[in-house]
C-alpha cells in the first residue's frame, strides 16, 4: 500500500508551532484564573453566570489544539494511509457543537428570565471590616477578562496563518472578541446596581447569542471541512488553487486537457488530476513525475497529488 508522504515542518513553521503551544498553555492558565475568580464573585447575576460558562467553554479550543497537534503529525500507517490530519477537523466539530448547544440553552434561559421579570440582587461582601458592594468585585474580575484575551488572540491568529490551523485561528478570533462579553457583563452588573432589573437578563442574552453565533459558524465550517470541501483560506474564502493547477498543467506540451479536484485534509491538501493527451504525444513516467511535482510546488499544503492519463476528459459543464 502506498502511503501519503509525511510532511516535515520548515524551521519557521516549527517555531510557530512551538509558540502556538505556549500561547495555548498560557490561555488555559489564564482562563482557569478567570473561571475561579468569577465563580467566587458570581452571586445571582445571570450575566455573570453566562460569562462564567462562556469562559469554561473557552477552554475547549486550546485543549483541542494541544491534543490535535500531538496526534495529527504522526506518520501515516497501513491502516491510516492518509495520516491523521483530519483529527483537527473532528476536534473542531466537537468544540463547535459544545458551543452551539450551550449557547442555545443559555439564550433560552436568559429569555425566560427576561419574560418572567426576575429581579436579581447583588449583596455586600465584607473586606477588611468594611462592607463593599459585591458588584465592584465582579467588575474588577471582568476587567481582568478584557485585555489579555485580545493580546492572546492577536498572537494566535498570527501563528495560525503560518500553520494553516483553523482550530488555532478560530480560537484566536474568539479571544479577540471576548472583550465584548466582559463589557456586556459589566453593563448587566451596573444595571442591577442602578435598579434596572432587565439589564442583567439582556446582557446574559447578548453573551448567549455571541456563544450561539460562534457555535453555529464553527459547526458549519467543521462539517463542510469533513465532507471534502475544496480548499479555503482561514477566513473561509475559496482558493483559486484548482484553477492555478489546471492552468499550469496545460502549459505542458503533451497535455491537451486537464481537470483537477482538490480537498482539504486537516492542515494539508490532497488532490488528483485527470489529463487527456494529444494523439501523437509520447510521455514517460518522468513527465508525469515532473508535472505532479510542479503542482505540489504551488502550495506547501499540497502534499499529495496524483495524475491519471485518460483517453478522453469531458469538458467542464
TrEMBL record:
Query: How would you describe this protein's topology in the membrane?
Result: Multi-pass membrane protein
Name the Gene3D superfamilies for this protein.
Cation efflux protein transmembrane domain (1.20.1510.10)
Q: Does the keyword Transport apply?
A: yes
Q: Membrane-spanning residues where?
A: 22-40, 52-73, 85-112, 132-155, 176-199
Domain (Cation efflux protein transmembrane) spans 27-226
Q: Where is this protein localized, as stated in its record? A: Membrane
User: Can you cite a GO biological process for this protein?
Assistant: zinc ion transport
Molecular-function GO terms, alphabetical? monoatomic cation transmembrane transporter activity
Q: Which UniProt keywords apply?
A: Membrane, Transmembrane, Transmembrane helix, Transport
Q: Which Pfam families match?
A: Cation_efflux (PF01545)
Q: What GO cellular component is one of the record's annotations?
A: membrane
Protein's name according to its UniProt entry: Cation transporter
Source species, please?
Alteromonas pelagimontana
Q: What is the lineage of its organism?
A: Bacteria, Pseudomonadati, Pseudomonadota, Gammaproteobacteria, Alteromonadales
Amino acid at each position: 500500500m502506498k502511503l501519503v508522504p509525511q510532511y516535515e515542518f520548515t524551521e519557521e513553521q516549527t517555531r510557530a508551532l512551538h509558540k502556538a503551544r505556549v500561547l495555548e498553555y498560557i490561555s488555559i492558565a489564564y482562563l482557569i484564573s478567570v473561571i475561579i475568580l468569577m465563580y467566587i464573585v458570581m452571586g445571582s447575576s445571570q450575566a455573570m453566570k453566562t460569562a462564567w460558562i462562556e469562559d469554561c467553554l473557552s477552554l475547549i479550543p486550546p485543549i483541542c489544539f494541544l491534543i490535535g497537534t500531538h496526534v495529527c503529525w504522526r506518520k501515516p500507517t497501513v491502516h491510516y494511509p492518509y495520516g491523521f490530519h483530519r483529527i483537527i477537523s473532528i476536534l473542531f466539530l466537537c468544540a463547535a457543537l459544545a458551543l452551539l448547544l450551550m449557547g442555545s440553552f443559555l439564550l433560552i434561559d436568559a429569555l425566560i428570565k427576561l419574560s418572567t421579570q426576575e429581579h436579581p440582587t447583588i449583596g455586600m461582601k465584607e473586606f477588611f471590616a468594611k462592607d463593599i458592594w459585591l458588584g465592584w468585585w465582579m467588575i474588577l474580575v471582568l476587567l481582568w477578562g478584557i485585555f489579555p484575551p485580545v493580546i492572546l488572540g492577536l498572537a494566535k491568529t498570527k501563528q495560525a496563518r503560518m500553520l494553516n490551523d483553523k482550530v488555532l485561528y478560530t480560537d484566536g478570533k474568539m479571544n479577540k472578541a471576548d472583550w465584548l462579553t466582559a463589557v456586556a457583563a459589566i453593563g448587566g452588573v451596573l444595571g442591577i446596581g442602578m435598579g434596572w432589573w432587565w439589564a442583567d437578563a439582556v446582557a446574559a442574552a447578548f453573551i448567549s447569542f455571541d456563544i450561539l453565533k460562534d457555535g453555529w459558524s464553527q459547526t458549519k465550517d467543521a462539517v463542510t471541512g469533513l465532507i471534502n470541501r475544496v480548499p479555503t483560506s482561514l477566513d473561509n474564502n475559496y482558493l483559486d488553487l484548482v484553477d492555478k493547477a489546471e492552468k499550469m498543467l496545460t502549459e505542458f506540451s503533451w497535455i491537451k486537457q486537464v481537470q483537477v479536484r482538490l480537498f482539504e485534509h486537516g492542515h494539508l491538501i490532497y488532490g488528483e488530476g485527470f489529463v487527456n493527451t494529444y494523439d501523437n504525444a509520447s510521455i514517460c513516467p518522468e513527465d508525469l513525475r515532473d508535472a505532479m511535482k510542479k503542482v505540489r510546488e504551488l502550495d506547501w499544503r499540497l502534499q499529495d497529488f496524483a495524475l491519471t492519463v485518460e483517453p478522453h476528459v469531458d469538458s467542464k459543464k
